[in-house]
Design brief:
The chain is mostly helical. It has ten helices and no strands. The chain folds into two domains: 12-31 and 147-220, Helix-hairpin-Helix base-excision DNA repair enzymes (C-terminal) (Endonuclease Iii, domain 2, Orthogonal Bundle); 41-140, Hypothetical protein, domain 2 (Endonuclease III, domain 1).
Length: 222
Amino acid sequence: MAKPVKSKRLSPAEKARIEELFHRFQSLSDDPRTELDYDSPYTLVVAVALSAQATDVSVNKATARLFQVADTPQKMLALGEEGLIPYIASIGLYRTKARNVIAAARIIIEQHGGEPPLDRAALMALPGVGRKTASVVLNELRVEPAIAVDTHVFRVAHRLGLSTGKTPDQVEADLMAIVPEPYITRAHHWLILHGRYVCVARKPKCLECPVADLCPSKTLFV
């Protein structure tokens, strides 16, 4: 678990740079949300758990069919592990994910009255739900301000000079300490979308980047 967030001392110039970064992201997309398809807290938990080491596109293709037949923990448990596998076989680690989704459905029914728990500790106690998954769910549902650090957030945070952390937890702590409070609930999505479509891994699109003039890494790529 990430350590409690401590505020970082920033120079006035750096504080202004970070404020401008997120102000620009906001001007492009005021209320970004996950690109995973869901229609309830439960289907969100399942979709995010399935998305580990898989693309949102591949997960949405699978859940489009799955959620037509199993969009509650009761229906998912009735479907069973072997019944679930054909729906998610196109997703990486599908056997492990099927086992976890069914086990989580049973726990949600038996211990939480059929509704997924929306506090971090109980959510992370579900099979297949780690810190990143819990952060995505809690932030998306506006339960808790959180920044889930995936490969995109990790890369963009380093390139934009927002973190030098060597682990996702360290990057998360850095970001939670420096992202201005008005932007904290949306920062996760802005950084993901920026990394997915602009600041891509191999050849970032610096000439199209809306924050290129604020980026200390730009000279490495142009």
